[in-house]
Inverse folding.
């Protein structure tokens, strides 16, 4: 049923693009429509990537999952850079990592209840987030005084990005050796897609994601003003959740079916992927436009480190429970409150 709804809602993407081109909708309304349209597109990219990976082997498959699995966030970030919104980019990165660790993992634990987890894999993902946060301090601390987007900090961010990508490659290679290829199967899936169908779906979804993301970013400031929210809050909370919505829903459904270990893997590996792959990739690609500084504000560094530490403490024994999920959800509400209070300062 959920798959049918997602397939049907794919029609929203071309509708949003056409409305943007031929009508004069208020920008706040465009933001809402674009955000809703991105959810099925993110799901389709995930589906197409998963099926494509079946034909490419574990190495290339893992790379495809890392690249296209985060395509909505990557595209949103690059468009925001091109529009001169570096704080929005950093906010969406921070929000994506934190929402995966606290919101998605918390909801998954509540849905799945008691169970055992892959303790080693969970702690590795949490460790990667902490390593990334520690390296982010290199350009972040100097940015707390003066211009956070000055060129020197963009240069420092490029160095940090290279280190993080090396870490990502090494850890991913070791993980592939440990359990060859991780494949998240869908119980509703009847048969796999052909390679040509998978690639076509991936290409079409990526193109529409770029078009819809441009509308989303272009209307973000108008929506923020209309809603009385800061651009940072909208990026860190709303855009971050929208960009990962399909993946978030998948983790919760998997947990509800009793596969709590798999659900935990989805949430934590996604968080780690954003921290050690997406963030540095965006920073390096930004040099083709306007160099981006990974100079996160104190509230963002605290949120990244705090969420990882909290999850590490709760999952240290390799077990899950609903009470631990509730603690994570409460932690997310605290972070959302901190993001709201911090504004764009």
């Amino acid at each position: 049923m959920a798959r049918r709804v997602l397939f049907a809602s794919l029609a929203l993407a071309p509708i949003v693009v056409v409305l943007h081109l031929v009508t004069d909708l208020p920008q706040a309304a465009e933001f809402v429509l674009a955000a809703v349209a991105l959810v099925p597109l993110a799901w389709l990219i995930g589906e197409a990537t998963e099926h494509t990976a079946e034909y490419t082997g574990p190495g290339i498959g893992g790379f495809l999952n890392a690249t296209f699995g985060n395509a909505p966030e990557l595209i949103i970030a690059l468009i925001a850079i091109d529009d001169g919104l570096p704080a929005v980019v950093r906010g969406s990165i921070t929000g994506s990592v934190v929402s995966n660790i606290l919101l998605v993992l918390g909801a998954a634990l509540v849905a799945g209840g008691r169970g055992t987890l892959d303790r080693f894999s969970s702690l590795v993902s949490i460790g990667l987030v902490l390593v990334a946060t520690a390296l982010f301090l290199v350009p972040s601390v100097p940015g707390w005084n003066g211009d956070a987007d000055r060129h020197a900090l963009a240069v420092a961010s490029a160095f940090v990005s290279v280190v993080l990508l090396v870490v990502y490659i090494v850890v991913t290679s070791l993980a592939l050796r440990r359990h060859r290829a991780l494949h998240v199967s869908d119980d509703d899936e009847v048969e796999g897609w052909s390679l040509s169908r998978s690639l076509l779906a991936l290409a079409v979804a990526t193109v529409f994601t770029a078009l819809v993301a441009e509308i989303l970013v272009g209307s973000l400031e108008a929506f923020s003003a209309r809603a009385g929210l800061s651009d940072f809050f909208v990026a860190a909370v709303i855009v971050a959740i929208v960009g990962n919505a399909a993946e978030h829903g998948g983790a919760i459904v998997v947990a509800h079916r009793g596969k709590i270990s798999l659900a935990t893997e989805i949430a934590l590996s996604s968080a780690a992927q954003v921290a050690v792959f997406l963030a540095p990739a965006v920073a390096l690609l930004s040099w083709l436009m306007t160099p981006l500084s990974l100079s996160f504000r104190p509230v963002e560094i605290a949120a990244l480190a705090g969420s990882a530490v909290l999850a590490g403490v709760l999952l240290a024994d390799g077990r899950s429970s609903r009470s631990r999920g509730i603690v994570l959800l409460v932690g997310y509400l605290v972070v959302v409150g901190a993001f709201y209070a911090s504004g764009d300062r």
User: Anything to note?
Assistant: The two ends are 44 Å apart (CA to CA). The mean pLDDT is 84. The chain has one domain: 2-342. The CA atoms of residues 102 and 328 lie 5 Å apart.
